[in-house]
Amino acid sequence: MNIIVEREKGLLELEKRIEELREANALQPVDMSSEIRALEEKYAQIQREIFGSMTPWQKVHMARHPNRPTAADYLSQLDSFDELHGDRHYRDDAAIVGGLGKLFARSIMVIAEQRGRDTKENLRRNFGMPKPEGYRKVERLAKLAGRLSLPIVTFVDTKGADPGIGSEERAQSEAIAACLRVFSLAPVPIVATVIGEGGSGGALALSIADRIIMLEHSYYSVASPEGCAAILWSDAGKAEEAAARLKLTAQDLKTFGIVDEIVPEPLGGAHRDPGGTIARVLQTVEASLAQLLTLSAAALAEARYRKYRQIGEWGTENLRQLQDSAAQ
Amino acid sequence: MLVDADFLEIGTEVLPADPLGWVDKKSYPAKLALDREKSQLTEGVVCGFGKLGGFDVALGVMDFHFRGGTMGTVVGERITQLLEGAYDRSVPCILFTASGGARMEEGMLALMQMAKTTAAVGRLMNAGNILITVLTDPTTGGVAASFAFQADFVLAEPRAMIGFAGRRVIEQTVRQKLPEHFQTAEFLLEKGHIDMVVDRQAMKPTLTRLLDYAANGRRAS
C-alpha cells in the first residue's frame, strides 16, 4: 500500500466535486461560486497539510507513486531517441533502457533505469531492478559514449539491483563494480538525475557523475528503508524508522554535498504536472552539460576524482568524547 | 603473518565520527566502542606497507569483527589512502576483504565509499600497478560490488561466502531454499567469477608467485 496514494484519495474526491459544481454552475441560473470557492480553499488547505512538509517515509512513498513519471516519460521528451539493446553476451535487460538521443540539439548517450507503469510491464521490467546483463549493457553504452565523445545522461529509478539466484550466478557484484569503474574513468561529462528511487549499489552503478540532480521528493539511500531495517533489526516492518534515520532525502544529501541540485516538484508531487517537471529536469541537465563541456577530458577526470575523494566524515578525537557528546 | 616485521601501518589517525547522529537501541558511538573492545581494532580495516616474499607491497586487511567488516567513511578513507600510497610508490596492492557491505549507520556517506575506492583502484591500475584481492568469509554487498571484483587477480579462501545480496534476502525474494554451496568460493570458481581458491597455508607462497610473475613481465617490457 502506498501511503501517498491513500492520502490522495480524499483530495481526488474533492477535486471531482469541485469540477461537478463548476459544470453545474455554468448551466444553472443560481450562483454557486461562493460554495465552489469554499471547497477550493478547503482543497488547498488539505493539500498544504499533506504535502507542505513531508516526512522521509512519505517521500519514499512519493518516489514510489504508481503515477510518478518514469524514465520513459523523460526519454519521450528528448528531441529524438534511438534505443540500443543488449549486453552482447547474454540478453537484453528491460530494466535498463539506453541509447543515443538529442537534448536541445546536443547528441547524448542516455542510460536509464525503467520500472513498469502497470503490473504487466513491471513483470517484464523486473520492477526496475536490473540484473547483471542490465549493468553490462550500462557498462557497454558508457564505454561507447567515451569512444564517441558523447556526454552521458542517466536517470536513476530503482529499488536496487536484482537479488535473485540467476543474478548471483552471473556475478551481480562484478557487473556493478564494472559500471563504477567505467563511470569513474569516463572521459566525458556525466550528469545523473534521481527521478524516483535511488536504491543502494543498484542506483550507484548509474550515478558516479560530475553532477547529481535529484527531484525534490525522490530518495537515495545506502539501502532501501525495508532493507536497512531487516539488516539492523531483522524487522522490515521498522522501515519507517529506518527512513527517518538514514538521511535519504534530496535535502539531506544536498547538505552532505553528495547532491548538487534539487529540482522542485509541484505541490502534490511530480505526477501532478509531469510535463512541467520533466521540462525543468531536462533544462537543469542541459545547464549542467553546458558547464561541464567547457572542461577538458583531463580536467573533468581530475575534478570527478577530487569530488568523490573528499566524501566522508571522520574524526581524530577519541571515541570516548564522541560517546559523551552522543549521550548528552 | 603475511608480511615481515617492519610493517608500516597508515591511516591510524583516521577514526570514526558520527555524521548522521545515529541512535537506535544504542548510539552509533556506543556500538563502535563495543566493536573496538571486541576486536581490539580502531576500525574495520588495517592498512600499511611492507614486504611480502621479498616484494614491496601495500596491504589492507578487513576484519569482520568490527561492525561486520562494514565499509563506512573510515574503512573507505583508509583503503583509499592505501591505494593512493601504492600509486605513489608504484607497488602492488593486496586487499583481504571481509565485509557485510556498506555501513548503515553512516548512510549515503558509506555508499559513496564504493565510488571513492573504485576511483582510486582505477587510477592505480591504469598506472600499471597490480591489484590482488583475497575474498575471505564473508564478502558481500558494497565491498563485493566495488573493489573486491576489480582486481587483476581475485582469490578466495575455501568455503568463504561471497555474493552481492545476502542469503536471507535472496531466499525471501525467490521463496525457495538455496542449495548449500550457493555463493561459496567453490561455487564462484565453478561459475567463473574468481581466479582460484587458496587455503591459508598456501596463501603466502601463492601471492608471492603471482607478484613474481607480474614483476617479471614488467621488467621484460
Task: Give a concise summary.
The complex is a heterodimer of chains A (328) and B (221). With 328 residues, chain A is of the alpha/beta class. Chain A has 15 helices and 9 strands.
Question: Can you put this structure into words, describing what you see?
Answer:
The complex is a heterodimer of chains A (328) and B (221). Chain A has 328 residues and is α/β, with parallel strands linked by helices. Chain A folds into 2 domains: 7-52; 61-309, 2-enoyl-CoA Hydratase, Chain A, domain 1 (Alpha-Beta Complex), CATH 3.90.226.10. Chain A contains 15 helices and 9 strands. Chain A has helices at residues 3-27, 33-51, 56-63, 71-75, 119-124, 132-148, 165-169, 172-185, 200-204, 225-233, 239-245, 250-255, 274-292, 297-309, 319-327; strands at 80-83, 96-103, 106-113, 152-158, 190-199, 211-215, 219-221, 261-263, 314-315. In chain A, strands 1, 2, 3, 4, 5, 6, 7 and 8 form an 8-stranded mixed beta sheet that branches. In chain A, α1 (3-27) runs antiparallel to α2 (33-51), α6 (132-148) packs parallel to α8 and α10 crosses α11. The two termini of chain A are 38 Å apart. In chain B, a hairpin with a 2-residue loop joins β3 (45-52) and β4. Chain B has a single domain, classed as Alpha-Beta Complex (2-enoyl-CoA Hydratase, Chain A, domain 1), CATH 3.90.226. Chain B has 7 helices and 9 strands, in the order ββαββαβαβαββααβα. With 221 residues, chain B is of the alpha/beta class. The longest helix of chain B is centred in the last third of the chain and has 21 residues, at 200-220. In chain B, strands 1, 3, 4, 5, 6, 7, 8 and 9 form an 8-stranded mixed beta sheet that branches. Chain B starts with 7 loop residues before the first strand and ends with a helix. The interface between A and B is large, with 61 and 70 residues.
What is the CATH architecture descriptor of the largest domain in chain A? Alpha-Beta Complex
Determine the CATH superfamily of the largest domain in chain A: 2-enoyl-CoA Hydratase, Chain A, domain 1
Structural class of chain B: alpha/beta
Order of helices and strands of chain B: EEHEEHEHEHEEHHEH
Share of residues in strands of chain A:
15-25%
- Secondary-structure arrangement, i.e. CATH architecture of chain B: Alpha-Beta Complex
Question: How many H/I helices of chain B?
Answer: 7
Q: What Rg of chain B is obtained from the alpha carbons, in whole angstroms?
A: 17 Å
| Overall mean pLDDT of chain A | 94
Cα separation of the termini of chain B: 33 Å
The total tally of domains of chain A equals 2
The radius of gyration of chain A is 22 Å
Biggest interchain interface, per-side counts: A-B, 61 and 70 residues
Note the run of SSEs of chain A as H and E. Answer: HHHHEEEHHEHHEHEEHHHEHHEH
- At the first level of CATH, the class of chain B is Alpha Beta
Q: What is the global morphology of chain B?
A: globular
CATH superfamily of chain B, by name, is: 2-enoyl-CoA Hydratase, Chain A, domain 1
Quickly count the domains of chain B.
1
Unreliable stretches of chain A: none
